[in-house]
Design goal:
Strand order of the largest sheet: 2-1-3-4
Low-confidence stretches: 1-36, 128-161
Oligomer: single chain
Mean pLDDT: 79
Radius of gyration: 20 Å
Shape: globular
Helix content: 40-55%
């Protein structure tokens, strides 16, 4: 809706994710049928996929994650052992394009049930987001940004398409669409427990529906619709609830904003009534605090939910999303 298109490169990126690989309870060597094991073995690529598998699978599944605590999920590299273990699972649940190493391993794996979350909802282009996780620290002058913005649509036409934004789990509606697809895949792959998977999926759908309602009601009347963040992860959330995400451009996690960018954001903060610069729990808050100090703004945490750790403001997806809502309500001046 109001998501601003910007060229984004070297943005301060993501909190690390939780729940390590652990030990996979392998299926018997002669068959990948779930009935030959105590539980339906699911390998999840990172936390949002793990949460869905656990919520829908309940007691019937054994879920492990490929992304260990402290790892940045986009840059995950798999060991030969992890790749081999993946092939022993009954199902793998992942989000294609988010983790290239996982995509490659799954393509080469003979695991019977491969569930791509990206294929269960519609991904969107929120600007040139392929640069979100480059970590190149490349900085551009204010003039270069203006030139890039001016030619964004022209480049889009020439290139065919930008990388699609993968952060769909931060939109409860799209996340619910993915959950429904996961449930159907579980029901088909493990029909003996299909009824339970359906009941669990329906319960999760109600929870996500309630979360969507809370966001709609909490953010429908605010003093401003603009929020600043150091990671362009909230495009779907912003679009869903009529907000505008403004990510800090041309910075790696340890960089400080350029004088031109500081001036630009100061001007925008005054014009749009922005009060807060959001940062992430496990990423350095140096950039956010520098910008906030120079622009006279506050800082707070907005969690992209790529993992749960002891620093997370909540112990699961719903709790952290509720914490994010409270932070947005405060920052945007909800009434």
């Amino acid at each position: 809706m109001n998501v601003r298109r910007r060229r984004i490169s070297g943005i301060a990126v993501t909190a690390a994710t939780a729940i390590g690989l652990g030990t996979l309870s392998a299926c018997s060597s002669d068959s990948s049928a779930a009935g030959n094991t105590d539980k339906f073995d699911v390998v999840a690529s990172f936390y949002p996929m793990q949460y869905l598998a656990e919520q829908i699978g309940g007691d019937h599944v054994n879920v492990t994650s490929l992304t260990e605590p402290g790892q940045e999920p986009h840059d995950l590299e798999l060991s030969a052992k992890q790749t081999a273990q993946m092939g022993e699972a009954d199902a793998v649940l992942y989000l294609k394009s988010l983790q290239p190493a996982v995509d490659e391993a799954i393509a080469q794996s003979d695991v019977k049930t491969k569930i791509d979350a990206a294929g269960l909802t519609k991904l969107e282009d929120h600007g040139n987001v392929e640069h979100d996780h480059d970590h190149d620290g490349e900085e551009h002058s204010e003039g270069e940004h203006a030139e890039e913005d001016a030619h964004a649509e022209e480049e889009h036409a020439e290139e065919g398409e930008h990388a699609l934004d993968p952060h769909v789990w931060l939109d409860p509606v799209k996340y619910a669409e993915i959950a429904e697809g996961v449930a159907k895949s579980f029901e088909k792959a493990d029909p003996d427990h299909a009824d339970d998977y359906r009941k669990n999926a329906d319960a999760l759908a109600k929870k996500l529906g309630g979360l969507d309602t809370a966001y709609k009601e909490g953010l429908k009347s605010t003093d401003t619709k603009v929020f600043f963040t150091n990671h362009a992860a909230f495009g779907y959330l912003a679009e869903r609830y009529g907000l505008t995400q403004e990510a800090i451009n041309g910075l790696d996690p340890e960089s400080e904003p350029s004088p031109a960018r500081i001036k630009e954001l100061q001007t925008e903060a005054k014009a749009d009534g922005v009060t807060t610069v959001f940062y992430e729990t496990l990423v350095s808050d140096k950039t956010a605090k520098t910008l906030a100090k120079d622009a006279g703004l506050k800082t707070d945490v907005l969690d992209p939910l790529e993992g749960i750790t002891d620093k997370s403001k909540g112990d699961d997806y719903l709790a952290v999303m509720e914490s994010n809502l409270k932070a947005l309500e405060t920052a945007l001046g909800a009434k």
